Amino acid sequence: MNKDWPLWEVFVRSKNGLEHRHFGSLRAADAEMAINNARDVYTRRSEGVSIWVVESKNITASNPEHNGELFEPAADKAYRHPTFYDLPDDIEHM
Amino acid sequence: MKNNENMKEQEKQTKSLEEVFEAKIARDEKIEPKDWMPEKYRKTHIRQISQHAHSEIVGMLPEGNWITRAPSLRRKVALLAKVQDEAGHGLYLYSACETLGISREEMYEQLHSGKAKYSSIFNYPTLTWADMGAIGWLVDGAAIINQVPLCNTSFGPYARAMVRVCKEESFHQRQGYEIMMTLCNGTQEQKEMAQDALNRWWWPSLMMLGPTDDESTHTEQSMKWKLKRKTNDELRQQFIDQTVPQADILGLTIPDADLKYNNDTGHYDFGEIDWEEFWQVVKGHGMCNKERISARKNAWENGKWVRDAAVAYAEKQAEKQAVKKAV
Amino acid sequence: MTNENLIQYIYSIADNSLILGQRLGELCGHGPTLETDIAITNIALDLLGQTRSYYQYVAELSKEDLTEDDVAFLRKEREYKNVLLVEQPNTDFAYIIARQYFFDVYHFLLLEKMMDSKNVNLQAIAKKSMKEVAYHKRFSGDWLKRLGDGTEESHQKMQQAVKDLWVYTDELFHMNEDDEIVTKAGFGIDNAALKDAYYQEIEALLKESTIEIPTTSYFQKGGKKGIHTEHMGYILADMQYMQRTYPDMKW
Fold it and tell me: Cα–Cα distance between B190 and B196 in angstroms, integer?
């Protein structure tokens, strides 16, 4: 038998109130081990209060070749941003 | 005929892709794993990042050699934590490298077969406790000079790994310097131990910053890709300039009769480096080359049944889960 | 109860953490994966941290002007009171895991009780260490299951390790004279009372791991009285090397 441990992506919440952020990856044979390894590898200096792990192969990523069609159309929709609208300077609470 | 035209068309396309790519790096934009990249960029990065990762894990061995013999409990936990960090750094770097389409196992294979290099300094033996001080002070000092600029390198995963590495590594050099300081404030015997360690680690540390610029093959391309910000000789000068005053504070003598501050340049002039020795160690003739590689190989080979068992267990558990669901 | 009784009692707890921490420290850089290296080092660091807390307390209690390092490094072999289990060598990963698990389960039960000790120092150390040891037990227990119920090869190795180390488990529950005195005073823990819960927990996990529970009519003992296996001398030779070669220096 020759099977290597799969790769996992690790997401850590540094403190309550913050989102889980991608911290890196590691190898583990199963989810339980991935959590334990993540704890040992990525939170040695009290970096976290919660850990998510997901096997890397289960992540579907967008293809950078499609970046044009996926992301560029959003660039000229300035009306989605508050600065698009002209209001007199002395209006408050808006 | 048609084939030929196709190829030309392809070449043209690649060329324009390459121009876009280089422009992107020049604008300080990051390259991410799934982005198009020239084959050479991928290969160079695999080589450099894996070499860096190998250096971290081979680098665990000379210091690991002193964990059981550390002279106080405080020193023992600090050294253990430091060597552990090196395992972590190896892991971050292997992971960054894996995003380029090579597995950690393949990289290990290259290390074990001697195809991949690692920093030659780890082929020197650690003979006394003072070596733990000298390594932290000098070797980590030289490493930091190399590594800090890499936090801004063009390949995103590498840059991110380096940010983490640099953050964690900040205690390593201090740990080493504190050991040296304690020795230098101690008995005559301790001070001699410290001086002896400096004598043995000084030149290898200078060599660690790489061959001289005229001997270095990768520099120009590496500069463009922000794998390097300064040349080897510039880095070496920086290292010497910052380390000499630190040795003065310790009251230790740098083992170089030609070392002298140059008022005109504002830098230290230094003596000839024994590059013959450097290349011998690179070629595998250092005192510990064989031990280091065989230690890594043994760890990996003796661990195979353990890794296999974990996979087999995970599969059995998954099957059990599936059966449970089906029922 | 004298201070000396209490000191001896603390040795019988703290020396376990020191010697096991020392054993685990040998492994750093040689494990089956980087991830396990990092995990095992974390356990070693926890154990050595606990050791320091205990020895600092011993140094306070002692009439002489001792430091934690004098206590750790300058005793003679017969003065170390760790159980034989923790000094057993890192034969292979199965031994490392079995040794760890056999110790962790005991360690957890002990600390649980120690949180109610009438001695506030021991109480405080127990409180802090409990969480660490809960994780150790989880790590070693998980691995015991993986190796026990993994491949044919790992199963055999795990079975062998369990069989060989089983003979050292009984000693965990022995009480030497100092243990008795300190326990009567309400500071110590009655080890013997932990025994049933210990074997119940271990046997359940071994069963789950498809590992046969060894039967033996004889158990090894001696560590708690300072009579160690031959391994101990080498552990100390290594550990005490600097302090013995260069006496009375600061490091």
Answer: 10
Chains that touch A (3 or more CB pairs under 8 A): B, C
Q: What is the ipTM of this complex?
A: 0.97
Domain map (residue ranges) of chain C? 3-245
Contact criterion met (CB < 8 Å) for B91 and A65: no
- The answer to whether residues B252 and B202 touch, using CB atoms and an 8 Å cutoff, is no
Share of chain B above pLDDT 70, in %: 99
Give average pLDDT by consecutive 10-residue segment, chain A, 94 residues: 85 96 95 96 94 96 89 89 89 86
The pLDDT assigned to C251 comes to 95
Please tell me what DSSP assigns to residue C170: G
Rounded Cα distance, B31 and B50, in Å: 18
Tell the CATH superfamily of the C3-245 domain.
Ferritin, core subunit, four-helix bundle (1.20.1260.10)
d(CA A36, CA B20): 42
Cα B64 from Cα B80, distance rounded (Å): 8
| A40/chain C closest Cα distance in angstroms | 5
Instruction: Look at B80 and C52 and tell me if their CB atoms are within 8 Å.
Output: no
Cβ atoms of C51 and B73 within 8 Å: the answer is: yes
The one-character DSSP state at C213 is P
The per-residue pLDDT for range B2-45, each reduced to its tens digit, is: 667 777 777 777 778 899 899 999 999 999 999 999 999 999 99
Q: Report CB contact under 8 Å: B80, C25.
A: yes
DSSP strand pairing (B260-262 vs A7-13): unpaired
pLDDT score for B4:
72
